[in-house]
Specification:
The chain is mainly alpha-helical and about 200 residues long. The chain has one domain. It has eight helices and no strands. Helix 6 packs across helix 7. The chain is globular, with a radius of gyration of 16 Å. It comes from Lihuaxuella thermophila.
Length: about 200
């Protein structure tokens, strides 16, 4: 299998896995990731679906990221956020359940966090069009020289502030997600790259 095919499959598979993980975290009711809490808060206040707000706010971030790295906006990520937004709305509809206790909440949350980090680490191997949120991680790293871990954490804290203001689903899980997702991604990316491309 040539590298182009591998990257294409990684891109699509990673987005599906990431959207599944995000949906599990939301359904855990333990507290969503900061960005997801932002989207859920917007949906609760202004209507539309969680996926729709991911797309709308993603378009705004496209322009913000271009400002950070001082370049023209890259509109290819619209494809990515459209796929991701639709997948999240699909999974939220399909995974229509309530956790039946604290143990279930914790299990669903941790599985969701792991799937989210794995999904991100796989789809970035496609090198096609990162989501604006993940582009923000790279834009902050490029602009200020931060590591990916630090850049991801800064972006999560930014979203956390807005999620809090919108009374989004903030909880213990939000804090865990905010500070662990970045390190997990940094740990997984080189390992998945070696696995996919035998490096």
């Amino acid at each position: 299998m040539n590298s182009h095919t591998v990257r294409s499959l990684a891109y699509l598979t990673g987005l599906i896995i990431k959207s599944f993980g995000i949906s599990l975290v939301i359904r855990s009711r333990l507290g969503t990731g900061a960005w997801d809490g932002f989207y859920v808060g917007m949906a609760g206040h202004f209507g539309l679906t969680v996926g729709s707000w991911l797309i709308i706010l993603g378009i705004f971030l496209i322009f913000f990221n271009s400002f950070l790295i001082k370049s023209k906006p890259n509109f290819f990520p619209i494809i990515t956020i459209f796929i991701l937004g639709c997948c999240i709305d699909f999974w939220l509809h399909f995974l229509n359940f309530e956790p039946d206790g604290a143990e279930s909440q914790v299990l669903i949350f941790w599985v969701g966090l792991l799937f989210t980090a794995v999904g991100i680490s796989i789809y970035v191997q496609g090198q096609f069009a990162l989501t604006p949120v993940d582009q923000l991680m790279y834009a902050l790293s490029k602009r200020f020289g931060f590591s990916l871990m630090i850049s991801k954490t800064i972006g999560e804290c930014f979203a956390l502030a807005f999620a809090f203001l919108l009374h989004g689903p903030i909880g213990l899980g939000t804090i865990i997600f905010t500070f662990l997702c970045g390190p997990l991604i940094q740990f997984l990316i080189p390992r998945i790259e070696r696995m996919l491309f035998c490096r």
